[in-house]
Write a structure and sequence with these properties.
Strand content: under 5%
Signal peptide: 1-22
InterPro entries: DUF4148
Mean pLDDT: 74
Number of helices: 4
Keywords: Signal
Pfam family, one: DUF4148
Order of helices and strands: HHHH
Protein name: DUF4148 domain-containing protein
Helix content: 40-55%
Number of strands: 0
Radius of gyration: 29 Å
């Protein structure tokens, strides 16, 4: 009988965190909330119909303006992570230079 009581107690202790996790207070975002957010971002200067390659920077800048207007400044992930800065990246383009400048040689040239 004691082992049954211990088993029930152990099972309830293990199940308690699972039940509390299942009852998360986060509700899904409604369609009206998404539309309202889009209107706020558009009023801050973002144009979703524009075809540009700087989409992340544009939307983040517009969201920062909205947050500044509402007084809810949110730090970016890079600022709060504490692990180095962001790498801007680099692009190099051009023509590959041949190794030998005296012309193209067959595969077994000089052997």
């Amino acid at each position: 009988m004691k082992s049954l009581v211990y088993a029930v107690i152990a099972a309830s202790v293990i199940a308690a965190p699972i039940a509390s996790f299942a009852q998360s207070s986060q509700q899904p975002v409604t369609r009206a909330e998404v539309r309202a957010d889009l209107v706020k971002v558009e009023q801050a200067g973002y144009n979703p119909n524009r075809d540009n390659i700087t989409y992340p920077a544009d939307i983040q800048a517009a969201e920062a303006r909205v947050n500044a207007q509402q007084g809810t400044a949110v730090a970016s992930v890079a600022d709060t992570s504490g692990y180095g800065g962001s790498n801007g990246g680099a692009v190099q383009s051009g023509i590959a230079k041949p190794m030998n400048v005296d012309g193209v040689h067959p595969l077994y040239f000089g052997r």
